[in-house]
Automatic annotation (TrEMBL):
<keyword id="KW-0472">Membrane</keyword>
<dbReference type="Pfam" id="PF11239">
    <property type="entry name" value="DUF3040"/>
</dbReference>
<protein>
    <submittedName>
        <fullName>DUF3040 domain-containing protein</fullName>
    </submittedName>
</protein>
<feature type="transmembrane region" description="Helical">
    <location>
        <begin position="39"/>
        <end position="60"/>
    </location>
</feature>
<keyword id="KW-1133">Transmembrane helix</keyword>
<dbReference type="InterPro" id="IPR021401">
    <property type="entry name" value="DUF3040"/>
</dbReference>
<feature type="transmembrane region" description="Helical">
    <location>
        <begin position="66"/>
        <end position="86"/>
    </location>
</feature>
<keyword id="KW-0812">Transmembrane</keyword>
């Protein structure tokens, strides 16, 4: 088999793999998996919780409210940790 024939066969195998399993083709081509929709949703929820918690901490400090400070700490620390634990425990 000459070089051109081997190159053509490898290109055909790559096209078939990309058609049949795009996620595997991406992993083999780049060395990293594609981000799943669940991962993006969990990441967005973590960022939203963190931002809301910081806002609650700021407002709690401004009005000297212990309830808002505690809720801010929960939103900043606990909720993202729970989401991350849930994500990595159930999807690995």
């Amino acid at each position: 088999m000459d070089f051109r024939e081997e190159t053509r066969q490898l290109a055909e195998i790559q096209r078939q793999l990309t058609k049949e399993d795009p996620a595997l083709a991406r992993l083999l081509a780049t060395g990293r998996p594609a981000a799943s929709a669940d991962f993006v949703i969990v990441l967005g929820a973590m960022l939203a919780s963190f931002a809301g918690g910081l806002l609650s901490l700021l407002l709690g400090a401004l009005v000297s409210s212990a309830v808002m400070l505690v809720s801010g700490v929960i939103l900043v620390a606990v909720v993202p940790a729970v989401l991350a634990t849930w994500r990595f425990r159930w999807y690995r």
